[in-house]
């Protein structure tokens, strides 16, 4: 085994950001609004964009990301080692890290936290992420609480043994589900731990009045010296987004957590008073049209390519007021493995017609396009319908509730085409494999699965397994190149027509500072609360 990375404290140098330099004073408050209350602050349970960054501010994991980026770095881990075969990960923990209750965090707490997540009694939606750890299969079947693949070697050293090499394991250790909790607090509060969270994060919960507000206060014994910058964050819930925007204009709040309301988007983005306060950033998201390769005529690659060439993506972007960028491949631009030099299929209706002729369908054909029935998705589907009509494809729109569209996609011969908007893929972690297995790999092309194109290329599945067996971070470039080739081969087969990569727009008050990336953080969605600061601290 060899040491692969020594950790440094997350400082301004990591961000390359003068906003986090030493002259930024400690103190100040921030007020954030949300329409809905928070469901839970238990890292084993929480799995929505609203509580994601809150949980990350209350808890820590072995790994995290450089603020505002998708670059992995150690967090509670001081260093880590990976065995030559990529199956054993050994982490050295920082000493002196404390939970909010004052107790020191140890490797035993890490072991307990992971075993709690995979225990069926916890009902964690993240249990599947840990499937490669030895013993998880038995634990998931209720055959034992402890995992044979996790060994506490000493109070500050923990070892994970996997069933196979897994290059995504470091990312899994950065997920909220892997955040560390103190056993005594979980047992004390039981099912209410999510309302009484105790972690080791930069903030601690000071108040939670259901339906009204949550208050986070700075944890003064936080291990990462100098963080957080703010002393207090108040999350006011039950705030309609339009009202929140008015309150921002009146100087009453600092960040409307639900973003800029669609009905006010054009007005706000054209208002010179907001020019320097609006923040735009990419997400790990792709919206796409699937074509079921098991159903004629989409079993012909010429037809699938024709659909790619028929859709006017610029017109669709106008429908959503430019809140996205056109996509030409499955991966979003901020994802490792994205092919920057790939042009994709150009908008070319005449070329699309020629491809249909080559497929023996010069007279066109009829099909169905499934779509979720929530605005703006039906309007987007109508634009796609018109584009397809222009090349001879008559697509009737089936506008259904989200659950019904998902169910139809999971039936092998039911949905010829699906516009994925409102249901499209947002990565759980910034690794190209997370865009493959569930939605493009053979494993997802099963009844009830999310591979709605039913595309299964066994050769690419083998290459994907090879890529994920490259667990050494020093070979990351080699692994990314493999994934790049996999996705470009997928585009040759064209089971999807990628449409756009949605971007997040938010707005902040003049009182709050920090690099723009912190407010549209691709991992700490939506805001990296630990790093932002108040400008008016004396």
Could you describe the 3D structure shown?
- The chain has 538 residues and is an alpha+beta fold.
- The protein has 2 domains: 2-201 and 508-534, Periplasmic binding protein-like II (D-Maltodextrin-Binding Protein, domain 2, 3-Layer(aba) Sandwich); 285-503, Dipeptide-binding Protein, domain 3.
- It is built from 15 helices and 22 strands.
- The longest helix has 18 residues, at 476-493.
- The chain starts with a strand and ends with a strand.
Supply database-style keywords.
Dipeptide-binding Protein, domain 3; 25% helix; globular; 538 residues; 5-stranded antiparallel beta sheet; 22 strands; D-Maltodextrin-Binding Protein, domain 2; alpha+beta; disordered N terminus
In short:
With 538 residues, the chain is of the alpha+beta class. The protein has helices at residues 12-15, 49-58, 107-118, 136-140, 169-172, 183-189, 241-249, 265-269, 301-310, 313-319, 349-358, 377-389, 402-409, 458-468, 476-493, and strands at residues 2-6, 29-34, 63-65, 72-74, 77-82, 88-93, 150-154, 157-161, 203-209, 213-218, 232-237, 255-256, 278-282, 285-291, 324-326, 365-372, 393-400, 417-419, 425-426, 496-507, 512-513, 533-534. It folds into two domains: 2-201 and 508-534, Periplasmic binding protein-like II (D-Maltodextrin-Binding Protein, domain 2), CATH 3.40.190.10; 285-503, Dipeptide-binding Protein, domain 3 (Roll), CATH 3.10.105.10.
Low-confidence residue ranges: 1-21
Round the mean pLDDT to the nearest integer and report it.
Answer: 92
> Which percent bin holds the helix content?
10-25%
- CATH topology-level fold name of the largest domain: D-Maltodextrin-Binding Protein, domain 2
CATH superfamily of the largest domain: Periplasmic binding protein-like II
Instruction: Report how far the terminal alpha carbons are from each other.
Output: 50 Å
Number of strands: 22
The secondary structure category is: alpha+beta
Rg, rounded, reads 24 Å
Taken from the alpha-carbon principal axes, the silhouette is globular
The tally of structural domains comes to 2
Helical stretch tally: 15
β-strand amount: 15-25%
- Please summarize the sheet with the most strands: 8 strands, mixed
- CATH C-level class of the largest domain is Alpha Beta
User: Which CATH-level-2 architecture of the largest domain?
Assistant: 3-Layer(aba) Sandwich
